[in-house]
Amino acid sequence: MVRTYQQYGFLSNIRANYFATRLDATMTLVFSGLILWVFWNLLNWGALNAVWSAENRDLCVGGGKGACWAVIDARWRLIMFGLYPYEEQWRSAIACIVMVGVGILSCVPWFWNAKRISVLWISGFLIFYVLMRGGFFGLTPVFEQNWGGLSLTIFIFASVSLIGMPLAIMFALLRRSELPWIARTMGLIIDIFRSLPLLAIMFTFAIVLPFVLPGWMIGDKLYRVIFGYALFFACYQAEILRGGIQALPAGQEEAAKALGMSYWHRIGYIVLPQAFRNALPPTINQFVITFKETSLVVVIGFFEILASGNAAFGTSEWSFAHVEVYFFVGLIYFIFVFALSRYGAHLERRLAVADR
Amino acid sequence: MSAFLKNKTVRDNVMQFGFVGAIILLIIVLMLTARSNLEAQGLTSGFGFLDRATGWGVSFSLIEFTTSDTYLKVIWVGIINSLFLGVISLVLATMLGGLVGVMRVSGNKMAELIGTTFVEIFRNIPLLLQVFFWYALLTALPKPRDAISLADVTFLSGRGIYLPGFNVDGGYLFWCFMTLVCALAIVIFMSASKRFPKIDAKKKNIKRFIWLMVATIIVFLMVIGRTPDTTFFDIPYRKGLNYRGGIRISPELLACIIGISIYGAAYIGEIIRAGFNSISVGQGEAGHALGLSRWHTFSRIKLPLAIRAVMPTLINQYVWLFKSTTIGIAIGFVDFFMVISTSINQSGQTLELVAILMGGFLVINYSMAWVLNRVNDAIKLKGTQLRV
Predict the structure, then answer these.
(1) What 3-state DSSP class applies to A134?
(2) pTM score, two decimals?
(3) Mutation test of the interface with chain B: which of A10, A14, A18, A31, choosing the one with the most B Cβ atoms within 10 A?
(4) ipTM (interface predicted TM)
(5) How far apart are CA A281 and CA A201, in angstroms?
(6) Cβ–Cβ gap A208/B351 under 8 Å
(7) Which residues, 6 or more positions from B80, have their beta carbon under 8 angstroms from its beta carbon?
């Protein structure tokens, strides 16, 4: 934008940002009209004319103008906890809070070394599992097929990350091996996994694996799907880590060699810490995508939060209220994913400052 | 023996051999187990079933398909449907994403606000949820009896959107489309290629000639492919409880198209914004200094540079978006994946069909990446041009 003179101040700022040219002025007016229109309609629909309480369900039926949040009021336990036994749902809630806490804590830089972060995640995951599964400490056992809602989403996400990350490191190192046949074979495997849709991989692991495995290895369908997802995650993450390793100056590893450090010392103390730092923004992005794509297990027939949302308006009593349920489930996803992606953007800015 | 292993070359070779051998062994063991498991269940393996008739139909197909057609053909139908959905969604996502990306770098704060809101909302909600949402909205439209009419030629109903169409055989329309695509490819190749540096003035004439040829071919195809004794344009009309004539777009297809385009547009918008931000400020300022208008600075200087800068990222995004067309199965759109999954249920030939599924996606994705990478090689800045 060309400005012949520069003025500072409130009015000239507005002018520069909103009314710089005739085209800009038109755009600003049209767009603000659009925003106001959408905002006003949303407000009318979602708040002013909405029905909030489940007792007033009848108000929604007669072609009400507003949102029928009554469906959330009536069915939120089904959406959040799925088929988990009603009296035990507090366990599911606490388990979710524990795992979210682990997620928040791992954003604190103090945890950013291999030992602390693994201890944090493994202990958090164990608490989650014990709470959900029960059978210890006088908790009634609840089997995996009864898990559902948000806690199943979080369980899939956490176990994929927990299995996938070590695998990704292994894949990246093998992919970078100096031995050509190892590097090529690993590269081929990674490329094949990356070019397949996640849904096809989940499906294959759920349906096909029982055919090719001996009976004792088959295990529960949920764990097979998680394993397939973890492999998929590992292949993507391995490429991200490889990028991070390649961005290192060659001198780093050569200096470590010159000091006589062994391969594992070089990798553990020199290469990986820096590679992770380089690859942090795309890694966070990968976690964001992984969280969103846990929703695909619906197709395989698991009862995570999107499926339990579908079930919430699946009865004839609430069948008209799909928009409200999708808004609610979407909001839950949005809170998780938006927080994570904002954190990623914040890290990116921080690292950019550090590099300057 | 231990002295032998201390030799680095020997050790390296043993390790390589061991690694590759272990993977090959794993695959062989899996295959053997599969064979014994299948024999125990009395299933025959092999691809012979592809010639059998399916006995079930599909709800959406661009080529004619009946229940007596073979499995091979139903898989082909699925691949064509997937490609169809993929192409439409990618084109729409690129257009919408380009618009959003440009809005976010336009310098107008109001446009930036809308662009940012769009990206943040649609990028942070799972695609599957969005597709479910659009599907629920589309199927909640009124019954065909009370369909919403737009100027009496287009009708919106819960059973689909009815659009006016041509009374021309589908195969001929396909060839019309292919002619257009080929012509577009030739023109783009001519503009981008460095092989015609000398005939710049003639290029315009050649291009005009190409477009004229295309128009002639399309008119010709339409005339011979026309269904006899009907009007040329086919406007849907209500008959009883449903609509006849025209084109019906099913809610499944439309929900997939809307969902994937919007989700893809949010990602592509971000990529394009990054591309514009990667251009140095000096480029735009130099344009202004030369007296170019705002539009010319944008279209002749910034846009070409931005496209070249984002091309590699965009290619990955396209491959990734194409893979996401598989979510069609969640709402019942007959794509490649759904065809395979139905075939598995019906025929029980699990391993063979999964192999076809994987092979199909490998071929499609690799060829897509290959073509786009050639385009990228053709248009990217080379050697002395590299003065960004």
Answers:
(1) coil
(2) 0.86
(3) A31
(4) 0.88
(5) 26
(6) yes
(7) B61, B62, B63
